[in-house]
Amino acid sequence: MSGNLPNTPLAAATIAFLLGSVFCFGLLTFLGGFSLWWWTTYQLGFFIAAWSAFHFGEFAVTAGWNLEKCSVESFLLDNGSMYHIANGSAVLEYIVTLYFIPSFKTRAWVSILGMIMVLLGQFMRSAAMIHASTNFSHSLAFRRLESHRLVTDGIYAYVALCRHPSYAGFFYWALGTQLVLQNSVCFVLYFILLWRFFYSRTRTEERMLVKFFGDDYVKYRDRVGTKIPFIP
C-alpha cells in the first residue's frame, strides 16, 4: 500500500482508465456533445477535462521521466481533504450560480482568459517536471541524496519564468479553472489558500536547498523570482 491507494499495476491502470473516461466526457461536453442538459456547458466541460488531464499528466510525466519515484500516488488523487473540498466547492458554486443567476456565467472573454491560464500553467508544470527529471519530487526532500543536483537551466533559468515553475504552473492552472467557470467566490478562496500553501512550502523547501547547495542556490534565488504574487 502507498497512502490510501493500492500501489499495484491494476490500480494504476484502473485509475488511468477512469481519468481517461472523465476526460472524454469533459471534452465532449466542452465541444457541445452533451448540450441536452442545462448544466453541461462548455465551461464545466473544460473544467472536467482539465482536471482529469492534470491528474493523468502527473502520473504520465513521472512515469516517463522519473520512474524510480513513480507510484499510484503520482496521480495526486490522494491529495488531502481540502483539495477535494475545493474542487467540490468550485463545481457547486458554478452549478448553483448557473441555475439561479445564469447571467453571471455569460462573459466568454473571462472563460477564454481562464483557458489560456490553464494551458500555460499545465505547460509550465509539466515542462518543469520533465526538465528536473529525477530531481523532481512531489514531496519535500529533507536529506540530500548523491543524485541530487541544483537545476537552474532550461525552464528554471529564465527570469521571465521562475525558480519554482511547477508551483507557479499549478497556481495559475488552478486560478485559471475558476476563471473558466467564472466563479468569483472560489477564485478569491483559491488565491488565498494556494498563496498560503505555496508561501509555506517554498520557505521550507528553500531552507533545505540552501542547506544542500549553499551560495549557489542563494545566488540563483536572488536572480530568479517565483512569479507567484507576494512570494519573493
UniProtKB/TrEMBL annotation:
The entry's keywords: Endoplasmic reticulum, Membrane, Methyltransferase, S-adenosyl-L-methionine, Transferase, Transmembrane, Transmembrane helix
Record InterPro entries: ICMT_MeTrfase, PPMT_MeTrfase
GO process terms (BP): methylation
Transmembrane domains' residue ranges: 12-38, 44-65, 85-102, 108-134, 180-199
Entry-linked Pfam families: ICMT
Molecular function GO terms recorded: protein C-terminal S-isoprenylcysteine carboxyl O-methyltransferase activity
Reactions catalysed, as given in the entry: [protein]-C-terminal S-[(2E,6E)-farnesyl]-L-cysteine + S-adenosyl-L-methionine = [protein]-C-terminal S-[(2E,6E)-farnesyl]-L-cysteine methyl ester + S-adenosyl-L-homocysteine
GO CC entries: endoplasmic reticulum membrane
Compartments reported by the entry: Endoplasmic reticulum membrane; Membrane
Enzyme category, top tier: transferase
Membrane protein topology class: Multi-pass membrane protein
Protein EC: 2.1.1.100
UniProt superkingdom: Eukaryota
Family: Belongs to the class VI-like SAM-binding methyltransferase superfamily. Isoprenylcysteine carboxyl methyltransferase family.
Protein name (record): Protein-S-isoprenylcysteine O-methyltransferase
Organism of derivation: Lentinula lateritia
